[in-house]
Write a structure and sequence with these properties.
single chain, mainly alpha
């Protein structure tokens, strides 16, 4: 996808390192896309990284290996014929075949290298995700009511506000909580402050609210605290030991912020 000045890329989250490998990358949370400036260097880099994804998968390792073996066999035969000191028409034909396949061989070697790197990345991601799941179960599986008790405390802080209770009951208190609760808060602020631009980030909304005097300083500070924590989660900058307590911190900040919002 593209606009007048940008290339837009949508890719599974477990492949985000591929998107980040391209210079001048930027993640647009509102559009859920990676954004790149529109120029020939960026286009070339994107095509190099994602051409196979766009125009079909590369040949399998087996197919590539078969062609490479055929190339080596033909080369060996050429050497034998040349060593005999009696070149023949067969040798000329083989030379022609070798020449016509040279470009394909180079391409296949490159594809084999890419396939190997992708497989390594996938295996690494799978192992990492499995370890995170096992660790989460270890820390949270023993007492499944803890999150419910913490949520009850947060509801109490709002005076058992009905709208807050509905929102909190729908969102799990897990590693994605800061991301999900911010989306709710952004939606609420857009409606309350009558912001029509769907592309405004939470940071821009809070700056506008402060300049126009639409929210008190404490509400803005609480929202910024939630925003900063959410960014740490979204960019994978936390270890598992920190995530639980930070999610609880975001929940408490959200309950305090709620009294300044009209989200009924």
């Amino acid at each position: 996808m593209q606009t007048k000045n940008e290339y837009l890329l949508t890719i599974p989250s477990n492949q985000k390192d591929r998107a980040k490998s391209i210079d001048s990358h930027k993640w647009d949370m509102s559009r859920k896309v990676w954004v790149y400036p529109k120029n020939k260097d960026i286009y070339a880099a994107l095509m190099h990284e994602f051409e196979n994804d766009l125009f079909g998968k590369a040949k399998s390792k087996q197919e590539s290996s078969d062609v490479l073996k055929e190339f080596e066999k033909l080369s060996k035969k050429i050497e034998n014929l040349a060593g005999a000191g009696n070149p023949s028409e067969d040798a000329s034909d083989l030379h022609a075949t070798i020449g016509s396949r040279d470009a394909e061989i180079k391409s296949l070697k490159a594809e084999l290298k890419i396939l190997g790197e992708i497989n390594t990345d996938y295996e690494s991601t799978i192992v990492k995700l499995k370890n995170e799941v096992d660790l989460y179960k270890k820390h949270n599986g023993s007492n499944p009511t803890v999150s419910e008790e913490i949520k009850s405390l947060a509801k109490f802080c709002t005076g058992n506000n009905k709208s807050f209770g509905v929102v909190i009951d729908k969102i799990k208190l897990d590693d994605y909580f800061p991301i999900n609760i911010q989306e709710v808060i952004v939606h609420c602020l857009r409606e309350e402050l009558k912001i029509a631009d769907p592309g405004m980030t939470l940071h821009e909304i809070l700056k506008y609210a402060k300049e126009e005097g639409l929210l008190p300083d404490e509400a803005i500070d609480l929202a910024h605290s939630i925003r900063k924590q959410r960014n740490l989660f979204a960019h994978g900058q936390l270890n598992q030991n920190q995530k639980t307590i930070r999610s609880i911190s975001v929940l408490i900040d959200s309950s305090l912020l709620w009294s300044y919002l009209n989200c009924d």
